[in-house]
Structure formats: C-alpha cells, structure tokens
Amino acid sequence: AKQAVKLITENNPGAAYGLVAMASETALLVPPTMDHKMFMEQVNSLQLGRFGEGTAIGTGITSAVYHLITSRAPKKCIVLLSDGENNAGSIHPLTAAKVAKENNIAVYTLAIGTKGSVPVEYTDPNTGKKYSAYLESGFDTAQMKEIASETNGAYYSVETLDNLSQTTF
Known about the structure:
Order of helices and strands: HEEHHEHEEEHEH
Largest sheet: 3 strands, parallel
Helix content: 25-40%
Strand order of the largest sheet: 3-4-7
Strand content: 25-35%
Distance between the termini: 17 Å
Radius of gyration: 15 Å
C-alpha cells in the first residue's frame, strides 16, 4: 500500500495530498498539502496497529470529507486504499460515500489484498514485540466498486504496482 501511495504521488506531481489513517480509529495525519516529501514521510511512518484493529472505512471517508469540504481546489477526491472489509467504526461506508457525493468529492477506490488466509507481520507499537501470523481476509471488492460508483469516482483492482502505474485521478 505504501508503494502504491508513492507511485500515485509520483504520477500526479501537481496535486495536493492529505493523509487520513484508519483502523478502529481514524486520524488526520497530514492536512492537504503540496509538500510531498513530508506527506511521504508520514505515509512511511505508518505502522500496523497504531490506530487499533479492524478497518473503519466509513469513518475514514467521512473524516477525509470533513477536511476537504473547505478546500478551494477545483477537483476534490479521496483515494481509498483498502481490502474493502469494513469491520470497525460507526459510519457505514455507503453513508460516508453519500456524504462525499453531496459535497462533490469523488472517491477512487483501490482494492489491495486478497480473500482468504493472508500472512501478516506485526510489531506491537506499545511493546515493540514482533508477531507473525495468518489473518483471514474478507476482501470485499463489491463494496469498493459501490463506493466509487456512488461518488462518480472509479474502482481499481491493484494486484501489482504495474496495474496502478496506468491509473490517473
């Protein structure tokens, strides 16, 4: 996912980027900025488990919308990188998509992952202890497609970074 974000910023150098991280909690780590170096430093500093377990897609989209509403940019969009499995948060992803659409913000969804048993390496941010295990992934492309469609965005399945290099926002 980090490599995908790097590729997107390199392919769209004139764009401003912001970063909302999401798990069971969401946080604005970078407000929209043209400082791509600082943006990528924050992306690279993300750690699994930093914001809890699970993925609150609806809360993440809503947080991004909140920070884009006042932007004067001629085109506002959210790039959502996820496996599409919404298993945390109190805002349904399609409710969040409607809020984005009402504010003329397109959501481009990039499905990253696979369905089934996935190897995960994890360092507990509190203890520094490293774990290695398998996680059952509920990869949900249908929801990612619906979010993109609802907001006049686009859906992309990203099996490889080569697929992503053809993508424009």
